[in-house]
Structures are given as C-alpha cells and as structure tokens.
Amino acid sequence: MTVYNLGSINADHVYAVPHLPVAGETLAATALQRELGGKGANQSVAMAQAGANVVHMGAIGADGAWATERLQQLGVDCSAVATVATPTGHAIVCVDPGGENQIVLFPGANRALPDQVLAPLQHCGAGDWLVLQNETNLQCKAAQIARQRGARVAYSAAPFTVEAVQNMLGLCDMIIMNAGEAAQLSRALGCDMGQLPVPVVVVTRGAEGADWHDTRNAQQISVPAHKVQPIDTTGAGDTFAGFLIAALHAGASATAALQLASAAAALKVTRPGTADAIPSMAQVQAFMA
Ligand code: RIB
C-alpha cells in the first residue's frame, strides 16, 4: 500500500533573527541555513520516516535536482517529480529565539505542475491514501482521480484560504488544520468543525494538543501536547500531518495515530531546520517512552 503525495518542493532559506521583522524594518540575521523544505516535501519525509511507502508527485525547475536527490535519500520515491521551465519554489523563513516563524513563499514550479505528475494515481486503489496541501495546483483533479479509484484523501489546508478549502470540502476524507485556520473557516462557513462535510476533521492546537472530530458520529478525541522548549516550529504541522497519515495508513487507531503525530511534532520543534530536522520513527518512539 502506498501514500501518494501531491506536494510542494522548496528550497528553504532559514534565517535566525532576534525578532520577527516588522513593516519597514531592516534586520540582520544571526545565522543562515539552506535546506529542503516545502509543506509537501516535509510531509513526504515525515511519512517516509514513519515507515510509509511514499510516492511524491510534484515539480522542480532546472535548478532543483538537489532537492529530489535529498528527498530520495530520505526514503521518498521521486520518479514522478517533473522538471519544468519555472524555477524551483523557495521560502524565506525567519525564526525568532522562541522558535516562532514567519515565511514568505515563491511558489515557482510548485504552481506549474503539468497533468503528467498525476500519472502514478493510475495505480492507486483501496488501502492507499492521497495527501494534498495548498502549495501546488491540481489538487481537485488529483482528489477526483484518487476517490474514483477508491483511495482515501487527506488534505492539509495550508497555506490557508477559505476558497481553497471550500473547493476541497466534498473531495476529502480528512482535513487537517491548525486552530487559527479552523477559527477562520468556522467564521466563513458559520459552522463548527464537527459540522463540516468531511468525515474527519483534525485541528492542531500547538502547545494545547490536537482534536479529532469524527463528523459521522459526532465523536471527538483529544490528545495533549508534549511540553518541550521550542527551537524552531517550522514544519511542525507537516511533521504532525505526515506521522498521523502514515500511522492511519498502517492501521493505527485514531488515538494512537494522534499520540504518535503529537510526539513527532513536539520532537521536531526542539530541532532547527525543516525536512532534515524531521525525526525518525525510532526517535519518536524513544521520545514517547
Ligand atoms: O510548513 C513549513 C514549510 O512551509 C517550509 O518548509 C516552507 O518551505 C513552506 O512551504
């Protein structure tokens, strides 16, 4: 069984800053790290680290071969990643001493995906998952193909816009949002998370844990967050989503999957960086123990 991930691939330029910049400010960084990132790539890495068989569907520009090489080294199948005439996406990530971040994205190749990147979905079926975020094009088309073939669709609604979520509501089996995104959606649609037309809604609440709403039977499961000293919160949501989906894919219960995802995200925030800082399953299990 396979997890297919239609996801962004970015070069992350991560600047350590004394505080997050404000309008009109010129701010000197104290350190710079360049590495693999992108919500899609981070989630693929997290799912592979959690033991899933992951096929990444996305695109890079002519400048991005290093990114797919790194993804492959981290256990992700990149045979369906296209090279397009648009430069590889990148992100300017500022991280303050408390681990909080601010991100500016250049979508680049991530929003220029040709239909051919969806070719692997011809092999998907019951027992497989399709994973989507908002940093690419083709999400609705991919979800339609996957559902027609009997696969389940998990949608991580970031970067968040109400319009993007509305387009996906009838097309996914699980939606994952943070508390701020859930509040915005709730205001826009005039309903609670337990009333969305999606079977499962997962809301992450940072230091306050995470909630699982099963809208089919009005059940809610909540898990607390682990208390850690944050160094860098970048990619924590991606780590949570990746471990959650991989655990469900492997047959874990909702509670067990939430607990694993919560521990993986907690461990991630104690480490600087994005894709390279995502922990392995062994590290997460040791942390939980
Ligand atoms: O979620 C973190 C990610 O958001 C970063 O890796 C950056 O590339 C942006 O996509």
Write the layout of secondary structure elements.
Layout: E1 3-6, E2 10-16, E3 31-37, H1 39-49, E4 54-60, H2 65-73, E5 81-83, E6 89-95, E7 101-106, E8 129-132, H3 139-148, E9 152-156, H4 162-168, E10 174-178, H5 179-189, E11 200-204, E12 210-214, E13 219-223, H6 236-249, H7 254-269, H8 281-288
Parallel strand pairs: 1-4, 1-8, 2-6, 4-5, 8-9, 9-10, 10-11
Antiparallel strand pairs: 2-3, 6-7, 11-12, 12-13
Bound molecules: alpha-D-ribofuranose.
Task: Describe the 3D structure.
This protein has 289 residues and is α/β, with parallel strands linked by helices. It is 30% helix and 24% strand. The chain contains 8 helices and 13 strands. It has helices spanning 39-49, 65-73, 139-148, 162-168, 179-189, 236-249, 254-269, 281-288, and strands spanning 3-6, 10-16, 31-37, 54-60, 81-83, 89-95, 101-106, 129-132, 152-156, 174-178, 200-204, 210-214, 219-223. It has a 9-stranded mixed beta sheet with strand order 5-4-1-8-9-10-11-12-13, sandwiched between helices. A 4-stranded mixed beta sheet has the order 3-2-6-7. Helix 1 (39-49) crosses helix 6 (236-249) and helix 6 runs antiparallel to helix 7 (254-269). It is globular. It starts with a strand and ends with a helix. The model has no long low-confidence stretch (mean pLDDT 97). The site of alpha-D-ribofuranose has 16 residues, from strand 2, helix 1, strand 7 and helix 6.
